[in-house]
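User: I've been trying to design a sequence by hand for this structure and keep getting stuck. Would you show me what you'd pick, starting by listing the structure so we're on the same page?

Assistant: Good idea, let's start from the same input. This is the structure you sent:
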């Protein structure tokens, strides 16, 4: 999704902005641009393609400005092109603006502006907003700040905007609603970004801007106001992040680095929470809303994509361990279908970025109806984390690869801890099982290491063997059904091979028609209470000459004999086992994508953080 960067201070702005744009490349984009303000004039450069293409367009230019804004665009209104790239000029060319989000009533505003003689040089909603602001500024004879405030009151949609104006040679004006904006506080300088990564090399003191806030930023001052023009005190937070966490650290791709980080990130999500010797789980966020949960009639889990898969797995686990009714909702459906929500509902929001627009709006809706919101979020200080009544961070660290890997396992760990804690509190689990699950959970990092140490070559071999397949089917039952869905999603994202996940027993109700000797079918078939059933499904596929790749528990000789290819994972309780069976599927997608020469970190059309609906 679009990335925004800004700088005002005493250093040259251009290298800081370009470096910041590169840090945001992981979000996904199709064009980029920069606008610099110097001596009451604006230099503006923009280009379709990578940031490196933008860099080529400025070769030979004198770029000494100490204030500027930069953007990576992910197309919504208007195809990826030089003209639709940001920043945009206003009609008078005295203001430049970048925008992340969607202006829903842009066509109405555009029609008004056309009748006034405005000319548009792009197909974007953003240029409409910019000229709307300029029109107010000219006609009301107002300052840019006032014009922005008036314009935003008429705008529907989501935005973060940054503007520079030749009349304000040392100021950036910024505003936010629904899309993320972070401001870094330096020594007589300020940094702006869609997240903190562009500013990490310079400062760890940041302010997360809230919806309906407007910032007036010079090198030595940050003035924050609400849309009603009242001053708001900026809340400065110190980030607990460092640069090495967002660099590749010797790996060829972020995705591979993040897959291999999982023993560490899983341990990190235990830290301060899981005390194995005392068999205790501390979740202070949950404690604050435990009464609400006790009174709740049901839990509703809301998320998108991979986070939705973690939620689906949590449904199985929470219902089994806690005996509470759980429903799992795609946030994008939930937000529009007038769901029946009351103050007796307990909503769990699952999100890596904490900025997914569909999830955010779904939660705002549920909160408006009195529900309690519990966030399971990775990015500290993100919009969903701040909207939630309580929650737990997943502590996976920054995830740069667009395909979620370590964030998924961290979500699952967080949700298992949640379920165990609640089950123990409600006495719906025996002490023996509770202790056994805690002990096994603590062993997961070592078990993941075992997979890396023993299965890697086999996974690579399977990846190369099947890389030319046109379609894949992923099948699982029970706790492994969400893992099958996640495996198929990973393959689609990374290799562009069509893949479908299905509950294995549903195969005979339709997908079995697809089975022939060209179709690889990945069975997630670890030893659990469904094992015999899924082995029967495997036999059904073999009887029709299908190609079976099985993820099995170590030493499962019977299943090995049926499968064409198999990958082993350590045996674990069926509640813990999905954390293991997902690892080979991540690696399988990764190596298939790499073997096809694809950009696995930034697959086409995808964005890391989907901040538009
Ligand atoms: O940041 P979120 O967890 O809210 O993002 C949700 C989905 O957009 C995300 O999981 C997406 O499906 C990933 N590309 C999966 O790899």
């Amino acid at each position: 999704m679009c990335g925004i960067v800004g700088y005002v201070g005493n250093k040259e702005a251009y290298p800081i902005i370009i470096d910041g744009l590169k840090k945001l490349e992981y979000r996904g984009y199709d064009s980029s641009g920069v606008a610099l303000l110097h001596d009451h004039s604006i230099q503006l450069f923009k280009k379709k393609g990578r940031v490196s293409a933008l860099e080529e367009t400025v070769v030979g230019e004198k770029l000494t400005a100490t204030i500027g804004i930069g953007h990576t665009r992910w197309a919504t209104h208007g195809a990826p092109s030089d003209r639709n790239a940001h920043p945009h000029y206003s009609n008078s060319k005295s203001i430049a603006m970048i925008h992340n989000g969607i202006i829903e009533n842009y066509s109405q505003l555009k029609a008004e502006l056309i009748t006034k003689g405005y000319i548009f040089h792009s197909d974007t909603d953003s240029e409409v907003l910019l000229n709307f602001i300029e029109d107010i500024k000219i006609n009301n004879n107002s300052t840019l700040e006032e014009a922005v405030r008036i314009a935003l009151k008429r705008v529907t949609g989501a935005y973060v905007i940054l503007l520079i104006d030749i009349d304000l040679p040392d100021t950036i004006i910024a505003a936010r609603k629904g899309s993320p904006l972070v401001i870094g506080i330096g020594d007589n300088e300020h940094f702006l970004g869609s997240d903190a990564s562009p500013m990490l090399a310079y400062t760890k003191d940041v302010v997360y801007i809230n919806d309906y806030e407007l910032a007036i930023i010079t090198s030595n001052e940050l003035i924050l106001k609400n849309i009603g023009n009242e001053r708001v005190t900026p809340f400065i937070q110190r980030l607990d992040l460092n640069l090495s966490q967002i660099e590749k650290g010797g790996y060829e791709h972020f995705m591979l680095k993040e897959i291999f980080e999982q023993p560490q990130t899983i341990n990190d999500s235990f830290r301060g929470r899981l005390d194995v010797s005392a068999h205790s789980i501390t979740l202070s966020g949950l404690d604050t809303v435990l009464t609400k949960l006790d009174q709740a009639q049901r839990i509703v889990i809301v998320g998108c994509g991979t986070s939705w898969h973690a939620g689906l797995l949590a449904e199985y686990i929470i219902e089994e361990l806690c005996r509470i009714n759980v429903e799992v909702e795609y946030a994008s459906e939930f937000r529009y279908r007038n769901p029946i929500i009351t103050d007796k509902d307990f909503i769990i929001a699952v999100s890596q970025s904490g900025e997914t627009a569909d999830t955010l709006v779904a939660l705002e809706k549920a909160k408006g109806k009195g529900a309690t919101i519990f966030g399971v979020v990775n990015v500290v200080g993100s919009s969903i984390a701040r909207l939630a009544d309580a929650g737990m961070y997943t502590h996976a660290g920054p995830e740069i690869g667009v395909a979620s890997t370590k964030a998924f396992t961290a979500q699952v760990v967080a949700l298992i801890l949640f379920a165990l804690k609640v089950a123990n509190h409600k006495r719906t689990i025996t002490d023996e099982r509770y202790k056994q699950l805690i002990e096994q959970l603590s062993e997961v990092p070592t078990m993941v290491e075992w997979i890396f140490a023993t299965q890697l070559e086999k996974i690579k071999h399977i990846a190369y063997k099947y890389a030319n397949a046109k379609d894949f089917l992923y099948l699982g039952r029970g706790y492994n059904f969400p893992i099958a869905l996640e495996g198929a999603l990973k393959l689609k994202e990374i290799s562009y091979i069509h893949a479908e996940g299905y509950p294995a027993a549903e195969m005979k109700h339709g997908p079995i028609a697809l089975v022939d000797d060209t179709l690889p079918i990945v069975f997630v078939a670890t030893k659990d209470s469904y094992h015999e059933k899924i082995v029967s499904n495997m036999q059904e596929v073999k009887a029709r000459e299908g190609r079976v790749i099985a993820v099995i528990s170590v030493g499962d000789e019977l299943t090995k004999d049926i499968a064409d290819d198999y990958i082993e994972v350590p045996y674990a309780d069926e509640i813990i086992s999905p954390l293991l069976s997902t690892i080979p599927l991540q690696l399988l997608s990764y190596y298939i994508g790499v073997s096809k020469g694809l950009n696995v970190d930034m697959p086409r059309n995808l964005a890391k953080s989907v901040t538009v609906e």
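That's my pick for every position. To get oriented when you compare it with your attempt: The chain has three domains: 3-245, 248-442, 449-604. The pocket of 5-amino-5-deoxy-1-O-phosphono-D-mannitol is lined by residues 304-307, 351-353, 356, 359, 402-404, 493, 606, 609-610 (CB under 6 Å).
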